Amino acid sequence: MCKTIDPKNVPQRTLYTGEKMPAIGMGTFGSDRFTPEQVSAAVSGAIRCGYRLFDCASVYGNEDLIGKVFSDAFSSGVVKREDLFIMSKVWNDMHGRGDVLLSIAKTLRDLRLESLDMFFLHWPFPNYHAPGCSIDSRNPDSKPFSVEGFMSTWCQLERLVDMGLTRNIGMSNMTVPKLKAVLPLCRIKPACIEMELHPSFGQPELFGYCLENGIQPIGFCPIGSPTRPDRDIDPEDVVDIKMPELVKIADAHGVHPAVICLKWAVKRGQIPIPFSIHEDEYVSNLRAAAEDPLTDDEMAVIAALDRNCRFIKGHVFLWEGAKDWRDLWDVDGVITEFHSRT
Ligand SMILES: NC(=O)c1ccc[n+]([C@@H]2O[C@H](COP(=O)([O-])OP(=O)(O)OC[C@H]3O[C@@H](n4cnc5c(N)ncnc54)[C@H](OP(=O)(O)O)[C@@H]3O)[C@@H](O)[C@H]2O)c1
Q1: Which residue has the least CA distance to atom 34 on ligand 1?
Q2: Which residue puts its alpha carbon closest to atom 42 of ligand 1?
Q3: In this predicted model, what pLDDT tens digit does every residue of 59-70 receive, in sequence order?
Q4: What total number of domains does the chain contain?
């Protein structure tokens, strides 16, 4: 099978700014399993195979090697800078005044770029935890969400747009109650919101709220993240790619169930950012967006597979006094900070 896909055959999404971006990209989080060398080699292969969208983050610890790959791809003429849509994120320990600028400066230096296409606020809490720590560890300085704290960080992201360091800004790991509180206060509205999205976790309310507000959802863990860090695996978790209905649809299309997860994501309207270091996988993942879409009946079958099964629960961002990980996600429809004071 051909190992390249013409990027012109990959659908595009239009942001509220009028700018276009690819309807599928590649993730770059090694999940504590894959080395920066393996991830950056995959990015190199992915550019050659036709990927034009990459989801990076400072906390993934591999932006310097990925930057070398980008730089080599530009200098060898494989692709031009303007052909790629490159995203990164500010980590939780860099929310303080002036720190967001320092964070993007380091990311731009590592990625060897003059500007980004999208810069996300990775989590809406300034709660640092050491990479790889256990889910029971708590930072005594951790705090619940506050509108004031969030907006002071978001204003710093808005300044980055003014300075030309990123064309767009986005949020990640948000909830509807948090968005209702902060969107009216934004001078520059987020163009995209990154959120966990896979067949067993479609977040219909948050997904719909983003669309109603002209914000493009980006879906992380789109295949159900079978290689996520051990600390994020709960024996109760659904395994999306083993759901019998999904396997049946995959058999009908002659592809792996992972590919069906991506076809579902693209047709639903989110931008999936699957990760893989294996060429056969990342080629078939990109191809998923370019050909053989699911039927409406198949989409309906997958829509019924939602089990509200969140994998990335975020325990390590909890503050002292929080009940459990659900406090991060405002499951009662109210921002947990306000809720706990009433
Ligand atoms: N904003 C956030 O807070 C946040 C959080 C999590 C992730 N993300 C982003 O989302 C990206 C994707 O999430 P993820 O890596 O956790 O999960 P994922 O993309 O759902 O799953 C990745 C795994 O699926 C398997 N896979 C991929 N393509 C396949 C195929 N065609 N056939 C069979 N198996 C396939 C691979 O495992 P094998 O190697 O075993 O085949 C791969 O390691 C990350 O890399 C990161 O960029 C963002």
Answers
A1: 258
A2: 276
A3: 999 999 999 999
A4: 1
